[in-house]
Design brief:
The chain has helices at residues 3-34, 36-45, 49-86, 91-95, 100-103, 105-125, 130-134, 255-260, 263-266, 270-278, 286-317, 321-347, 354-373; strands spanning 151-153, 158-166, 171-178, 189-198, 207-215, 225-226, 231-235, 247-250. Helix content is 56%, strand content 13%. It is elongated and about 90 Å long.
């Protein structure tokens, strides 16, 4: 590594850190004043404003780095090279016959390192803080509870909605279970004040033990629903181990699925996403399947974004920083629109294969990055 390489690397990380923490500061200020009353109350409860802000905004730094890391790396690389061009620092090196493609190798190495760090962040660090990332100031006081939407257990057809959930204790509140008509034409739903996720034993399979039943009325008079050998809804009339106002609901959904719902995929590691796809309890749309392939290809697409955009911006802007910024934004938008277009076409079944919809941007932009890289030496 030459002195010039070390100088360029220091320049790159200086700009990257300035951009990243400027963006983080702007995000915190906007979010803080948008939720000022809630955060003020939470600070008193959590032992101080700074302590709560550390617990709340700390994990969100990982989320912001995941979302903005490649783009800020590209901005730092373009700014570093353009500023050195503007100050004529590259003239002597170019006069010695060293091509630009060699000069920018330290910048590419830095960007590659940040792309790898982003992948590690998604797979190892963000899943550890999935609970904190899924909470907002409005539901932070629920002691780990969060709002969910209806989830469908595709093995028995039940739709389950849980208003408040605690994944650590496997306890739930305000539960609604929608019952399909082929199980019962007399009972459409079950409404319970609370419930627990209980593992299988000799008396019942894995499921939810519901208490505080408000619908249906007088559940102890009802017959269990489902096949006699494998009932789906257990009532105390047929199962004496239940109290009169208790109902047991058989479900194959995991506690994590019941708690996090659709956000389980967003903050899960790749191995957890693949495991969810292989689990028969959930039906995953084409969009979910495309998301799994996109997660696999994310580092490659992040690097392709940098390798496609950087040569174009540097080659056609020279030392004009304003023009470089405009071209950079335009190139990033064009790249992201292209990726989203293929994914949308796949979700709408206009591209028949979900995997092909995720791979098409790679087939397009990776060869394009090789072609644009040759622009540097022209």
């Amino acid at each position: 590594m030459t002195i010039f390489d070390r100088y360029l690397i220091r320049f790159f990380f200086k700009i990257f850190l300035i951009c990243f923490f400027s963006f983080v500061g702007l995000y915190i200020v906007i979010h803080l004043f948008s939720n000022f009353d809630e955060i003020l109350a939470l600070g008193k409860r959590e032992g101080g404003q700074l302590r709560f802000m550390q617990k709340f905004y700390g994990p969100r730094l990982l989320d912001l780095f995941d979302r903005m890391g490649p783009i800020l790396a590209l901005v730092a690389a373009i700014s570093s090279f353009s500023m050195m061009q503007r100050r004529r620092e590259l003239s002597a090196i170019e006069a010695a016959g060293i091509p630009k493609s060699r000069m920018v190798k330290p910048l590419v190495a830095c960007c590659l390192g940040l792309v790898i760090l982003g992948a590690v962040n998604r797979e190892l660090w963000m899943p550890k803080y999935r609970k904190e990332l899924s909470l907002t100031p409005q539901n932070w006081l629920d002691d780990g509870a969060r709002h969910t939407v209806f989830l469908k257990d595709h093995l028995n057809g039940l739709l389950i909605k849980i208003r408040k959930a605690d994944n650590e204790e496997h306890q739930y509140k305000n539960i609604i279970v929608q019952i399909p008509i082929y199980l019962s034409d007399r009972i459409s739903r079950i409404v319970a004040a609370r419930g627990n996720y209980v593992p299988a034993n000799d008396q019942h399979p894995t499921g939810l033990l519901l208490e505080g039943i408000s619908e249906p009325q007088q559940p102890w008079k009802l017959d269990s629903l489902g096949a006699a050998e494998q009932p789906v809804i257990f009532f105390s009339k047929d199962h004496p181990w239940l109290n009169g106002n208790q109902i047991f609901v058989r479900t194959h959904l995991t506690p994590e699925e019941l708690t996090y719902g659709v956000q389980l995929t967003e903050y899960s590691s790749l191995s957890e996403m693949i495991e969810s796809l292989q689990r028969p309890t959930q039906w995953f749309s084409r969009g979910n399947r495309i998301a799994v392939h996109s997660r696999i290809l994310r580092p490659l697409l992040d690097l392709a974004l940098i390798l496609v955009t950087f040569p174009i911006v540097v080659r056609f802007t020279e030392s004009n920083l304003l023009l470089a910024a405009i071209n950079c934004v335009g190139a990033i938008c064009a790249f992201q629109i292209g990726v989203m277009l293929f994914q949308t076409l796949g979700s709408l079944s206009l591209i028949r294969s979900a995997s092909l919809a995720a791979w098409l941007p790679v087939f397009l932009f990776v060869p394009l990055s090789v072609l644009t890289w040759k622009l540097l030496d022209r």
